[in-house]
UniProtKB/TrEMBL annotation:
Organism of this sequence: Pseudomonas kermanshahensis
Pfam families (UniProt xref): DUF3077
Domain of life: Bacteria
Protein name as catalogued: DUF3077 domain-containing protein
Amino acid sequence: MTTGANKAPTTVGKTKFYQGEKKTQPLFCIEPGIPCQDAREQASELMGVVRDLTIAGVMDDNPQLIWASHYLSALAKALMDDAELGMTR
């Protein structure tokens, strides 16, 4: 969200990641007020790690690495989605 004409947009804090069968309680959520550029940069870094973990998990037949990449990709998506919300306000 922007608070002034010269302020950079920030995350709005509305994006949550739900996990589990009933999806009644969020596993994590994005905090409001993070500069959108910072959130996008962090999401990009996370997606690089996701790529590496996915390749390693497939090559080594290691499901733990695949699950780790799954959760990290969900975090990266939440960051990107909330940054997008902040940039469109």
